[in-house]
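TASK: fixed-backbone design
INPUT:
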């Protein structure tokens, strides 16, 4: 999915996507435009030079994660369901492995976690701004040392997002229903 803070497209593509219709009442411009591009079978690609460097910090990570999953659910319930099922299976698999599966099940889980971290390591090298890559790679240690905690945290954020109807973002509170913004109020 594209990120609205670092997105570029030609006027021809914007007209082809019918952005007025794609963005009408939507909370997230990047998700709505990304889905419109996907439906139009356009190729989306990251352009590292367009990315804006931002600090990577753990503070507020849970609230940020819930907000991001709420954006996904608001714009594409199907995408959210797939992500929730995949992460939920992993989270419950870790409960089983750590509780009853024995050392072989735990070893398989850790092996998969190391494989996932190696793939993400390569993605970071190709997409993330070089100055931020070191900090992003440090976050991969969570995937290797405590993959069960990462799964449980993500699944928790996904489930909390499903129960929320309000997002605080950019100094405003947004209430959403059926994929559309139904109310908006400036935060005092």
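OUTPUT:
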């Amino acid at each position: 999915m594209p990120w609205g803070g670092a997105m570029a497209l030609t006027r021809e593509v914007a007209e082809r996507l019918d952005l007025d219709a794609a963005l009408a009442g939507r909370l997230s411009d990047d998700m709505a435009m990304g889905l419109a591009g996907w439906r139009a079978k356009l190729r989306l690609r990251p352009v590292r030079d367009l990315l804006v460097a931002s600090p990577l910090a753990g503070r507020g990570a849970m609230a940020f994660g819930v907000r991001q999953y709420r954006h996904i659910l608001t714009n594409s319930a199907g995408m959210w369901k797939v992500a929730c099922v995949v992460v939920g299976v992993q989270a419950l698999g870790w409960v089983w492995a750590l509780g009853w599966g024995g050392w072989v099940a735990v070893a398989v889980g850790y092996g998969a976690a190391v494989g996932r971290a190696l793939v993400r390591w390569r993605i970071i090298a190709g997409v993330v701004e070089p100055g931020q890559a070191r900090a992003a790679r440090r976050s991969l240690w969570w995937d290797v040392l405590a993959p069960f905690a990462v799964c449980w945290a993500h699944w928790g954020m996904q489930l909390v997002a499903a129960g929320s109807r309000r997002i605080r973002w950019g100094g405003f509170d947004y209430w959403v229903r059926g994929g559309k913004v139904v109310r908006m109020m400036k935060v005092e």
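COMMENT: The beta strands are 166-169, 172-177, 180-186.
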